[in-house]
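P.,

For your records, the input lines for the assembly:
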Amino acid sequence: MIWSPEYETMPRESLEQLQVERLKSLVARVYEKVPFYRNAFKERGVTADSIKSVADIGRLPFTSKQDFRDNYPLGLVATPMEQVCRIHASSGTTGKPVIAPYTANDLRLWTDMMARTLTCAGMGKNDVMQNAYGYGLFTGGLGFHYGGEKVGATVIPSSTGNSKRQLMLIQDLGTTVITCTPSYALILAEAATEIGLDLGLTRLRLGVLGAEPWSEQMRNEIEIKLPIKAVDIYGLTEILGPGVSVECSHRCGLHIFEDNFLPEIINPETGERLPYGQVGELVFTTLTKEAMPVIRFCTKDITSLNAEPCQCGRTLVRMGKVLGRTDDMLIIRGVNVFPSQIESVLLDVEGVEPHYQIIVDRERHLDDLEIWVEVSEAVFSDEMRKMEALQKKVKDEMEGTLGIGARIKLVEPKSLARTEGKAKRVIDRREL
Amino acid sequence: MKIKQVSVFVENQPGRLVAMLQALKDREISIQALSIAEGSDFGIARMILSDVPKAVEALRTAGFTIRETTVLQRDMPDRPGGLLEIIEPLAKAGINVEYFYAFVDPTPGTASIVFKVSDPDRAEQILGA
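Structure tokens returned:
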């Protein structure tokens, strides 16, 4: 089934025409409302009149994660605050998060996009959807929640964690669709084995999984261990949250809801726009968002686009699975973590030197974050009690900033590998 | 009496203790007393050494994180109750012992104790050392 056939199966010429119209009015709107964009447009001498085709988007400036930080918290907001009715957030590159404000129309748009997403993934109104994405500032929980309700399914807001209770709900309430991170799907499978529950005897049939990168091998493992078809979903806080793109039942790329989110692939070195099929950095422009529209946001995600018609009937362009990142962002248990955040926490703890190494591993399907910190003479004590207090202080500060737990290991100075005078900061041992 | 103790941060893995001991041996520094406090990932080696300035230099050169601390050292009779006679008056005076280590002195019938307390000046007074 297709939730919005008029948009999702629109002939590509009409779609492009719609995109150009929306892009023109977007450019006019942000020029008027957001000083950041007005200045950037003036510098390049572009106005709404410069936009005559979709390709003209190439004349607009890029927006980076750094721009979000420079304009923290609400510098990029294009509407009066009284029109903003909800705010979500995700981690930024340092201690400050990325703020995502929504107007009532934005929330309607988001709910619609999630209804499209879940329908595209294969969910319908007779399904029971158990939503094990985190509820709170994270966009995953509420995004899926309202989309599921809009589709007409029965929504169980189970949120993250407590696997035994999740399994109880799956059995007792006849859950058919599970929405969570791919790694959590595997944790659930293991927990089921531990308590002797055969998931094959439950009504589970579909998983809409995302918020972290995962491979085809992991998909195979999930489908062997759980009686579900595992469908990949993509989204990001700066653009919307979940609901930007999703696989259909043919699973040959993720359909991007292009009537609202205009994608481009660029060469990350030169900024040059690349044709369909070529691999590069994914860039998004939000065509219809009100509270915080974004022009050419560089996602740092590496993938390619495919505009060939899909067997499902959708004319929407498909993005390939994300192949990697152009920056050092890590996604740990669905949470974005930047080495620079870790560094700023260490600098805040008195006496601790910013010599550290991040070890990410996947133990029994759960990402494990370990941070090795070199002990300088400034913080070293002959009393174990004080050393343990230091370890705990770093751990607490780290959790407060990153939003996920980390193991802190104190190590001897200069024991951390340094290559060409620069420390190798991240060791990612996960096999995705 | 007050003496200098050298503490060394040692990672809990094979070879690190060897590196520390080698650094001391190479400069012909002898260890008069030693105790190691262990955590899960690392230990703190606390030592009374024959030549503190030389030891500090040797250990730093070998890349170790070290700390010099003033601790108390006291001889005591090597017989039942010997240690009790030292600790009890401190407890009565409300002085907390952070850690201590004891060893038998080469002089027959004598033992020695190295300890760190919350208030070393008062402890010294009480013990009359």
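Two observations worth noting. Chain B touches chain A through 21 residues (CB under 8 Å). The CA atoms of residues 104 and 111 of chain B lie 4 Å apart.

Regards
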